[in-house]
Specification:
Number of helices: 6
Distance between the termini: 38 Å
Shape: globular
Radius of gyration: 17 Å
Length: 245
């Protein structure tokens, strides 16, 4: 049985959730020393795309809103579980939920699957501290639980609560934002792009010594970016839309 606190990567480079589907590709889009693979978001029940989904570019990046569509945990296990067992890299399942019981149910279904090395818990934007800690604590004891937090939600009380809840690591993930869209409204969603590099570097500086390994989960658009984050104290880095070319 894997210790709840143990994470083992052969390299500090991972993809980010939502960038490459559910199974490690046979040929990666970028030639980097990959150490693990993070799946697309997986929810307890199937999710359809958001009605207001869209992509808006801005200087230095883009705002993306999809609603995290996926077929649900049972369908994902059926379609990809055997592929995870044959994968050359450890697989982290990224779980999407609104309540702790959903994380608990999914973790019970996923624990014991060969090739699965960790559960990455995508915390809802603006989640109260108690809810966020409860979601991490609900992940069970067999697999390490990695907490993925939007960069603009990170704060000392939240990080302290995640440590106490048993998180194995903290992903400093894409922040949320809003931009005018082509329909003259506002589109809200996750922010991506090289403009985020200074923000994640500052977050690494702020949370060094918090008691958790820190994973830089946004702002990486070159190998030099990743190496700068590692030199600044990141335990690992995650690559997102840079993988899309």
């Amino acid at each position: 049985m894997i210790s709840r606190q143990s994470l083992d990567l052969s390299s500090a480079w991972l993809n980010a959730a939502g960038s490459l589907g559910y199974t490690p590709p046979s040929r990666w889009p970028l030639e980097l020393p990959w150490g693990g693979f993070v799946t697309q978001a997986i929810s307890r029940r199937p999710r359809t795309p958001a009605e207001s989904r869209g992509l808006v570019n801005f200087p230095g990046g883009a705002l993306l809103h999809t609603g995290w569509p996926n077929p649900g945990v049972r369908a994902v296990i059926k379609a990809h579980g055997r592929r995870w067992a044959r994968a050359a890299l450890p697989v982290w399942a990224h779980l999407l939920a609104a309540e702790p019981y959903e994380i608990h149910e999914m973790s019970r279904m996923l624990e014991g699957l060969e090739g699965l090395a960790a559960l990455e818990i995508g915390l809802p934007p603006g989640a109260p501290v108690e809810l966020a800690a409860g979601m991490v604590a609900a992940a069970g004891q067999e697999l390490p639980a990695v907490a993925a937090v939007p960069l603009n939600d990170c704060c000392p009380p939240l990080v302290d609560a995640l440590v106490k809840a048993g998180a194995a690591a903290l992903v400093l993930g894409p922040p949320r934002g809003a931009l005018p869209d082509e329909k003259n409204g506002l589109l809200t969603g996750r922010l991506y792009g090289p403009a985020l590099l200074p923000l994640v570097l500052q977050a690494l500086r702020a949370y060094q010594g918090c008691g958790l390994p820190l994973i830089a989960g946004c702002g990486v658009y070159s190998q030099a970016d990743g190496e700068a984050l590692l030199a600044a104290g990141a335990w690992a880095v995650q690559v997102d839309t840079w993988l899309w070319g």
